[in-house]
Amino acid sequence: MNLVLKPLAISLAVAAAFSANASAQSVPNNAQNVVVTAGRQVQAAKDVLADNVVITSEQIANAGSESLVDLLQQQRGIEITRNGGAGTTSSVLMRGGSNAQNVVLIDGVRYSSSTLGGASWETIPLGQIDHIEIVYGPLSSLYGADAMGGVIQIFTKKGNGPAALTASVGAGSYGLRKMQAGVSGSSGNEFNYALNVGHENNIGFSATNPNAGKYSYNADKDGYKLDSASGNFNWQLAPGYETGVKFMQSRLNAQFDAGSSYDDHSVEQLQTIAVYGKAKVNDIWTANLQVAQSNTLGYTDASYGQSQIDTHQNLFSLQNDIRLGKDVLQVIAESRQEKVRGTTAELNQKRTTNSVAASYVWKLDAHLASVSIRNDNSSVYGSNTTGSLAYGYRLTPDWRVNASYGTSFRAPTFNELYYPGYGIASNQPEKAKNAEIGVYYEQGSSQLSAVYYQNKATNLLVSTNVCPVQQSTHRYGCAYNVDKATMSGLTLGANTRFGDLALRGALDIQNPVDDTTGKRLARRAKQHASFSAEYTLAQAKLGVETIFSGDRFDNVTNTRTLSGYSLMNLYGTYALNKDLSAVARWNNALNKDYALAYGYNTPGSNVYVGLNYGFK
Fold it and tell me: Among 257, 286, 325, 361, who pairs with 208 as Cys (CB 3.0-4.6 Å)?
């Protein structure tokens, strides 16, 4: 209990001190806030039936030295794992699912590794991001394979208004240095532009500790260099017609530990680019066309050898939105080609998935509803049809209840299909059925939510020693469709404002269990929570963030335990003038020793200071 209570008590004491002279005030209703990802269309946040969170540009600016996964760790329904410090292999787990069971989009472009499954989070630069939308629950009926736990969409910065420059520079513990610059604006009403570049490097600390074993532990420092760029250009060709191009690119050169005396390192590159067009065909029909490419390029030089594995994805999407009064009918056609090229010849494969989908969003007085269906036809694993049905009712203008049911699936990765001595070409997709019910409240600056969900998965692909056909190439086991799992839980969220004091909190109580073995899924806690308070005083903002997690098991047999932990971060910003502000952070202020993966270190108490120019 002391693990949780000490930082929580400090947080509440700070909040109490700030709020002593604060009085509740009314702020503009959040009805103008919109969410795009939940329905592949612009929707007022108050009308979105799926549970969701939006991370604002202000929250990202306050993040300072943190990485994207550190920021996501503070959101409800999300846990993270990482093999060392920033720059090392990281995973994001949504609602008890795995890293491969969620979809990541960058400006609408799917980003993932076809060999490992899921996104390579360490390559996504936080400094290039404007805001983030997180939508929980099965969304395969809108986005296809892998959207079992949810969808996270990252939006890069856009331009509007007069030409403006932004720049930031900062330094921190472990030799951290960060620099960023950008230009954005518009030319009349015809052309909008934004271009941003960034660089960061860190000397770091040892990724491993002696628990990793004598053949993996290396006491050397494991740092990284991350260079990145993003751009967003949009042309208004005529009223109702527009076209544009958007891209993000990063190159991560990171050290890690895989041998006791070797300087192991990897070079990972993220590349996404999309060309899109939008046409308002008539008063009710809008067509959206996007052609995109997403690449994940990875080179590894380690004690066990050198390797190169590249994932190339070509993506095509045509979406038609037909507005029927307050309702919207969508008809979608998509194609996705995945191709892997690398030094492991057996993985040099490709597959194509062609998809068609339809959805309908209905609004009538206090009633809200949506229905969607999708078919994904793969050249490798065949046809899969998924669907979703959701209903919401406004008890009052402030209170709403929701209920939904949806199906989803995850495609087998190329490793699970083809990796020598591990993959089986006949492996089939994982499948899941999710039911949930939620209660939501929104009034002025206050929002509350409580959602109970149960996601039952079958055909899970796991590493097993009992292969369907024991061959000489599978002497040590294989990936095989053998397990069932139930991921259920209650997720609570709240935020409010009292005068100059803003409060935000989240609590997840979950039971992610492997139904085949009765064991808890690896690296998932039964409870995790976060709390933050931010006080505004003239030109300054002072904030405290706390993160709590219960114990977890590092392995599927539940024989190796990772202890629970609690963290406290402090931050502050000060506006030096209308364009220039200073930011400071003190992460892990209580210098807690904790683990996200057995045998791997995490940062101790560390600080960061920086200057931001032109950020609003």
Answer: 257
Instruction: Give residue for tokens 């904790």.
Output: 594
Q: Which domain range does residue 345 map to? A: 2-613
Q: What is the CATH number of the domain that holds 537?
A: 2.40.170.20
Q: Please give the Cα distance from 382 to 396 (Å, whole number).
A: 46
- Within a 10 A sphere around the Cβ of 324, how many other Cβ atoms? 11
Counting Cα atoms < 13 Å in the Cβ hemisphere of 303 gives 13
One-letter amino acid for residue 227 of the chain: D
Closest CA to 88 of 552, 524, 601: 601
Compute the average pLDDT of residues 417-431.
Answer: 94
Give the count of domains, the chain.
Answer: 1
Dist. CA 362–CA 371, nearest whole Å: 9
Q: Is the pLDDT of residue 423 over 50?
A: yes
Distance of alpha carbon 302 from alpha carbon 123, whole angstroms: 19
pLDDT in tens, 7-40: 444 444 433 333 333 333 333 333 348 999 999 9
Q: Report the alpha-carbon distance of residue 57 to residue 127 in Å, rounded.
A: 10
Nearest to 13 by CA among 606, 585, 568, 574: 568
| pTM as predicted | 0.94
